[in-house]
Each structure stands twice: as C-alpha cells, then as structure tokens.
Design goal:
single chain, about 220 residues, mainly beta, Pnp Oxidase, Chain A, Thrombin, subunit H, 2 domains, 6-stranded antiparallel barrel, 3 helices, 12 strands
C-alpha cells in the first residue's frame, strides 16, 4: 500500500536535471496521478517511459520514491500517471521551533526576482519593485519556513521570494509553497500559505532561529 495521500504536493526530478512540481490528485491501483495547474511557473513536459524520482509532502509527512511515467492524459490540466512505484521511504525533516508573530511582509512570484542571486532590494529600481512585490501578513515563522496570509493567489509547489523583517533585521529569502488554504471572506478569497525556505545558507538559517527564539521569549513575557 502506498502511504502517500491525495492532495500532497510533489516534486519530480527528471533525467535532464529539471524539476516538475505539482499535486497528487489521485492514487489508484498502485498508480499515482500527478497534475500541474496551468499557472504553475515550473511546468515541464515529461516523456512517457521516463524514470523519475519524487518527493511528496502533505505538510506533515514527506516520502521519497522512484517511479516510471507510464501515461500522459489530456485532462483539464497536464496529468501524468506514475507506475512501478518503488523505494518509498519516509523523509525525516528537521523540526524547527515556531514562533507566532504578526508582521507585514513583501513577496514576489515574478521570475525577475526569482532568477537573481543577489536579492538586495537596494539593487533594483523602486518602479520595478512596486510592480513585482505583493503584500502579505506573517502568521508564524520558524527556521524552516513561514506561514502568511495574502489575497494574491499562488500555487502549491511554486517558488517565491520573501522579504521579512525580524526584530529589526531584514531577510531576503527564497521559498517553496508547500501548503495553501483558501477562505472566502465577504466574497473575496484570502489565502493562507505554508512556505518552506529553500537555498538558505546555514549562517542565515541560524540567524533566523535566533530571531525566532527572541520572539518566543517576548511572547512568553506578554503572556
């Protein structure tokens, strides 16, 4: 029995080194059905018969696996059937302390920023920043990621750039949307995102962890 559950986010490593990001929308007869929404910026065409390695996460548990792309279906969204699922292993992810903290943040899903190695805001014109940056509200943060709310729609599996202010210090980080929840408030959609930090140096992560513990101490003092 496959322990992976439907609606998990999934990353497939392809033979050419590229990554396909999407969602598991069904598991049937030991086959995994994977789809990528049309607005995903990481969509890659996969050849039938290609061998892939995958990582599926439901926000709590993560599993790695190997598979073969046995079929491509013409449905509403690009959909692939993965067969011959082997080497399923639970991935132990480091658990980070998490602090509840409300703070305005800026983020972007635009390739202009995602493709930059140096994310320093001072290097870009203010006009471009106003065009690319969106507003969000941080809910909590840990050394591994952040939860925030926004009315801007992102897709699970999508990479973004985050600009976060923590205890007087600004962090420019890249992250991957691993979870999305939508609430309808006064006929408008409000999204809550769980984002995992990616490409973070150990030095930067340790800085964030120290800031998180500072926030936790302040929260305890507030009672």
């Amino acid at each position: 029995m496959i322990p992976i559950i439907v609606n998990s986010s999934v990353e497939l490593k392809l033979g050419d080194g590229n990554t396909f990001k999407g969602l598991i929308y069904d598991i049937l007869d030991d086959n995994i059905y994977v789809t990528s929404t049309s607005d995903s910026k990481d969509f890659k065409l996969i050849s039938v018969g290609e061998k892939v390695s995958g990582l599926a996460s439901d926000g709590i548990n993560s599993f790695s696996f190997n598979a073969i792309v046995s079929e491509r279906k013409r449905l509403e969204f690009p959909t692939y059937i993965l067969s011959n699922i082997t080497n399923i292993e639970k991935v132990q992810r480091r658990q980070y302390a998490r602090a509840h903290h409300t703070e305005e943040i800026k983020f972007s899903d635009h390739s202009f920023l995602l493709e930059k190695e140096d994310l320093n805001l001072n290097k870009f014109s203010s006009n471009k920043l106003m065009e690319y940056l969106k507003e969000g509200l941080m809910v909590d943060i840990s050394g591994g990621g952040i939860k925030f709310k926004s009315d801007h729609r992102l897709s699970e599996g999508e990479d973004i750039v985050l600009y976060i202010q923590l205890d007087g210090e600004q962090f420019a980080l890249k992250g991957n949307v691993v979870h999305r929840q939508v609430d309808i408030i006064k006929e408008k959609a409000l999204y809550t995102y769980g984002v995992e930090f990616i490409d973070v140096t150990d030095k930067t992560r340790e800085k964030i962890i120290k800031k998180v513990f500072t926030l936790m101490r302040k929260n305890r003092i507030k009672g």
